[in-house]
Write a structure and sequence with these properties.
Oligomer: single chain
Largest sheet: 2 strands, antiparallel
Strand order of the largest sheet: 1-2
Shape: extended
Number of domains: 2
Number of strands: 2
Number of helices: 5
Length: 113
C-alpha cells in the first residue's frame, strides 16, 4: 500500500480508471478487492456477503477477548446473531436510549470537565 501513492484514494481512482470498477489484488498474501462505485459494491456484497462477515483469527486478540466471546470479534454464527438481537432490543431500543439519556449526559459532563 505504501508503494502505491502518498494519497491512497487517488491511487485507487487511477486503478479503477485503468482496470474497471472492480479490482482484485493482493496485499502481501491476503486477497483484496475494491469497488469504485456504490452500485458495484452493493452487488458484490449482496452476492458474497458471507465471505466477508468473519474477522481474521488473531492469537493475541483471541486471548485478550476471552476466546473471542465479545460482540466485535465473535465469528458470524448463531451466537453472533443472538448477541446482535440482544443488543438491538435491550441496549439500542429507543425507549431504553431515552431512559439512559440522563446517565449519558452526566457521564459526558464528567468526561469533559
Amino acid at each position: 500500500m505504501h508503494l502505491m501513492s502518498p494519497i491512497p484514494h487517488q491511487a485507487f481512482h487511477k486503478l479503477s480508471t485503468r482496470y474497471g470498477p472492480l479490482v482484485y489484488f493482493f496485499i502481501i498474501s491476503k486477497p483484496c478487492g475494491f469497488a469504485s462505485s456504490p452500485e458495484i459494491a452493493k452487488e458484490f456484497l449482496k452476492t458474497n456477503e458471507t465471505n466477508f462477515l468473519n474477522r481474521p483469527k488473531v492469537a493475541n486478540l483471541h486471548y485478550l477477548t476471552y476466546g473471542s466471546s465479545d460482540f466485535a470479534t465473535v465469528p458470524y454464527e448463531p451466537h453472533w446473531k443472538f448477541m446482535k438481537n440482544l443488543c438491538m432490543t435491550e441496549l439500542l431500543d429507543g425507549r431504553i436510549l431515552d431512559q439512559l439519556r440522563p446517565i449519558r449526559r452526566e457521564e459526558t459532563m464528567s468526561f469533559c470537565g
